[in-house]
Design goal:
Layout: H1 2-8, H2 13-34, H3 48-73
Helix pairs in contact: 1-2, 2-3
Length: 83
C-alpha cells in the first residue's frame, strides 16, 4: 500500500519500492529497540518510558531516513545520478 502512495505522488515503481524499503527498515529497527519497554498490561500511551524513548530516538532515525531518501531521489530509475 505504501508503494502505491509513493506511485500516486509521481514516483516510478522502482523508486517507490526503494522508499518503502527505507521506511520498513526504520520501522524494524525502532520496534526492536523499544520492544523491551513494551508492557502488555499498560496502555501504550500510558507507558511513558516507551513514549519518551521513541521521542528521543526519532531525530536520529529521521536523519537516517532523510539521508537515504535523498539518495533515492538523486538517482533516476536506472540508478544514474541526476543533477
Amino acid at each position: 500500500m505504501a508503494r502505491s502512495a509513493f506511485e500516486a505522488m509521481g514516483f516510478d515503481r522502482a523508486r517507490a519500492a526503494d522508499m518503502v524499503a527505507v521506511l520498513d527498515e526504520m520501522d524494524r529497527k525502532v520496534m526492536v529497540e523499544v520492544a523491551p519497554l513494551h508492557e502488555m498490561d499498560t496502555p501504550l500511551l500510558e507507558n511513558t518510558e516507551f513514549i519518551d524513548t521513541i521521542r528521543k530516538m526519532m531525530p536520529r532515525y529521521e536523519a537516517a531516513v532523510n539521508k537515504q531518501t535523498l539518495k533515492i531521489l538523486q538517482h533516476n530509475s536506472k540508478g544514474e545520478e541526476q543533477l
